[in-house]
UniProtKB/TrEMBL annotation:
<protein>
    <recommendedName>
        <fullName>Hemerythrin-like domain-containing protein</fullName>
    </recommendedName>
</protein>
<dbReference type="InterPro" id="IPR012312">
    <property type="entry name" value="Hemerythrin-like"/>
</dbReference>
<feature type="domain" description="Hemerythrin-like">
    <location>
        <begin position="3"/>
        <end position="119"/>
    </location>
</feature>
<dbReference type="Pfam" id="PF01814">
    <property type="entry name" value="Hemerythrin"/>
</dbReference>
Length: 152
């Protein structure tokens, strides 16, 4: 498995959880559970992806600009998750923020899979792609087990 395949596995989970979360309403156990799962998924993915995908790419001139953009999008997701965490589940504005988060997640994943991965594929050597996948997966699994209140 290479780094791109490893990242895509989490992308599938993120899309699914974000879409399911938007189907909820009010302060229900389902909304709370889906939000916690999405928050944990985004956290584990972002920590591992930053360390074992973006940082190695930032070390190259050609990877610097695209990496900055991706990290800025991670920061935007962090802020939206923090807003959701601080907003009552029953607040009518909660779903509007959740929609912004879902749109940001979908946009980010689309950009990664249909642009950034292709550029990164030209920068990283095949051996790096495989090694980074293993490191990413170990870090991702470690943080999937940790409950976090937010991505900050």
């Amino acid at each position: 498995m290479n780094i791109f395949e490893a990242l895509r596995e989490s992308h599938v989970i993120q899309r699914n959880l974000a879409e399911r979360l938007l189907q909820t309403s009010g302060d229900t156990p389902e909304r709370r559970e889906l939000f916690e799962r999405l928050k944990n998924e985004l956290f584990a993915h972002a920590v591992a992806e930053d360390r074992y995908f973006y940082i190695p790419l930032m070390m190259t001139d050609s990877g610097l600009n695209i990496t900055r953009h991706a990290l800025a999008e991670h920061h935007k997701m962090d802020e939206l998750l923090e807003q959701l965490t601080e907003t009552e589940f029953s607040n009518p504005g909660w779903l509007a923020i959740a929609k912004k988060l879902s749109e940001t997640v979908h946009h980010h994943l689309q950009e990664e899979e249909h642009g950034f991965f292709q550029q990164a594929g030209k920068i990283l050597l095949d051996a790096q792609k495989t090694a980074l996948a293993k490191q990413y997966q170990q870090e991702y699994k470690k943080y999937k087990k940790i409950e976090k209140d937010s991505l900050v």
